[in-house]
Design brief:
Blueprint lengths: L1 E7 L12 H10 L3 E6 L4 E6 L4 H16 L5 E5 H9 L14 E6 L5 H8 L7 E5 L2 E5 L11 H8 L3 E5 H17 L1
Antiparallel strand pairs: 1-3, 1-4, 2-3, 5-7, 5-8, 6-7
Helix pairs in contact: 3-6
Length: 185
């Protein structure tokens, strides 16, 4: 069994696309997933399954949610090793002046086209910063994520790829949960 981290985009936000985590666990269990654990109510799940491509898992989950709830939910699955690499590559961790409580990661479904990235780089984002590394955007918002222009929707609209964002605490908590599952099994 391999440990995976599932990140769903846009569920249980403002009363829209509601899925109770207990119901989601039952749905994932029906797909054969094991040791399922959820973190908060916004679509953060750790589970185990036979070694399979993340894309195959994303399609399985997306299809099951569509069938059960009749709406689409952008779905991203990461292996624990990949998630640890994402955390390790955060360029803002090297700067001790950065408060980690203002760090976020936007996970992209695909690498954006270079010409789009060039346009994005010319924008004025005030004191907010972002750095793209592979399919992940590290975002630093010293005045808070609620006040930044660099939101998940902003990146999706500008980069023309699906995305979902998690704060630094949640990202690290998902890794801890995945490590606990691996140790206990």
């Amino acid at each position: 069994m391999i440990t995976y981290i599932l990140i769903l985009r846009g569920i249980n936000v403002g009363g829209h696309r509601s899925i109770k985590m207990t119901d989601l666990k039952i749905l994932l269990s029906s797909l054969g997933f094991m040791n399922i654990q959820t973190y908060i109510q916004s679509g953060n799940i750790v589970f185990q399954f036979a070694e399979t491509s993340e894309k195959v898992l994303e399609e399985m989950i997306c299809s099951a949610i569509k069938k059960q709830y009749d709406f689409d939910v952008p779905t991203m699955v990461k292996g624990i090793t990949e998630m640890k690499e994402i955390v390790a590559k955060n360029p803002y961790l090297k700067d001790e002046s950065k408060d980690i409580s203002h760090l976020h990661v936007t996970f992209l479904d695909d690498i954006p086209a270079q010409e789009i990235l060039n346009t994005l780089a010319s924008g004025d984002y005030k004191s907010d910063e972002y750095t793209l590394v592979g399919k992940n955007i590290y975002v630093y918002c010293p005045n808070g994520y609620g006040k930044t222009k660099l939101t998940n929707t902003f990146f999706e609209n500008k980069l023309k790829v699906a995305a979902t964002t998690r704060n630094w605490k949640t990202t690290n908590e998902l890794i801890k949960m995945a490590e606990k599952i691996e140790i206990s099994c």
